[in-house]
Amino acid sequence: MRSARLMALVLLWPLHSTAAQCVAEGASALRLGAREWFEAGARAALDSDPRCAFLGSAMLDISDHFGADACTSMRRLEDSEWTAESADLLAIQAEMSLRCGKPLAAASLARATLRIDRGSHLAWLVLAEVLASRWRRESARAAFEQVLASDPRQPRALWGMPAVVDSREEGIAYFKRYLAVALSRGETRERIRMAGDGLAMLEALGDRETWTLKKADLPGTIPLTPLSTRLAHVGGWVLRCEIGDARKVPALLDSGASGLHVAPRTSRRARLDEVSSATLVGGGGAGRHAVRRGLYSHLDLGPLVYASPIGVVAPRSLHPRGAYRAIVGLDLFGGTEVEIDLDRRMMRIREAESLVETGDPLEEKIIGSGDGAIPLFRFEGQLLAPIEIRAGRRSVHTLALVDTGASKTLLDRSVAERLPGLRKGGRRAGRGYGGAIPYVGEVHSLRIDLGGAVADLRSVAVIDLAQRARLIGVRVGAFVGLDFIAQHRLIFDLESGTLKLPSSESARTEEARHR
Fold first, then answer.
1. Is residue 507's pLDDT more than 80?
2. CA distances from 360 to 65, 102, 139, 357, 375 (A)
3. Which pTM does this prediction carry?
């Protein structure tokens, strides 16, 4: 990408502006896709006016800066005297804050931009994506519609709409509109492929109902069984469920996963009605693998029973020894409050208080008023929470995947490199859904602070999450695993998108209230 940037600067050298007005001024309000944005930034970067050249350079950053690079760009914009008075630079700062894993700051900056220029497409897009990540579907849709009203071919808005619309027909229509313009406007092949898979799934389902709630016996409990490793450590927690004709299926409870994933042999017993194929991205290892998707007759989780759940059939066994034959993502309990109490080896499922939206993206509360609640952000099905990671006298604030499917906490390379005690190298590797996950180093000791809940961890493995940041558009600085989670009770409100970690005293009071 850097060589492409240099080539663009060379080719566009004769086109740089010598007039008083910057050629890129007002860019955040123009009808620009990724390719047009890059070309406009390349022209502005050659301007003789340093303010215009700074804007052009910031625009070029959007083309290839994700994760740690986005954080560097964000800090550069913060330090510039020009940013506060420019809607374009403020919008770019909002974008880079989101990519850096600072969604609350991104939303605040997007709103500040819109107070200067209500026509800033980039600010509306950032605000829409943050609202969607915070379960504010109505407000997110209204923000996406602000963009599409003036640019019906804006690819990012078209991509975001299927997740916030009310009907399958609307989702199909937006996927088709996105695919019609995506390639010409510079969208990535990965995102185009994912949109194609989503469209194929929706079209194959037709008018069939899915995930129909047949029973909600709440409050209810689900027993959990520890999955022990060879080192006598707990490597996960398993529940028993019924999937179609397959009874008592051991399933890994995985808050780092989305949906229902089933091993091939179990899927045959459960009698899958196959609907479509797809390429699944994530889970570590190679990161991409072919899967089949379809419907089962029902999914019985105990307190909750669904008819016609959608399942993903894994390409191979989910566990080398068959200790679990399915993976249950936490989003299957959407709309409820889920408490994970590993001391008592159980989950408690309760009804959650309904989320009330204003529908106004400029006024919608992005953080709820719950006492001690930590905001969760949902990007591409992953539940991320803001954490502080400290080692020695240094600390890093980032977003982390709260992952009950990970036995140990893992750090991103870019975070570890900002902390003391990093030892690079080593040949160890972990195991993920997609295969082996290579470790690139280890941090001797650190402290994790998640909303005031603290744990000291040692020998924390380091992996490279740069590709994940580029894929989902947001930096993920760590996977917070069971070595932290087992020390705290977690309460996920999957209606409003919050995480609570009650103290022992408050937990006892709450437990008595729900008896």
1. no
2. 30, 22, 5, 8, 20
3. 0.89
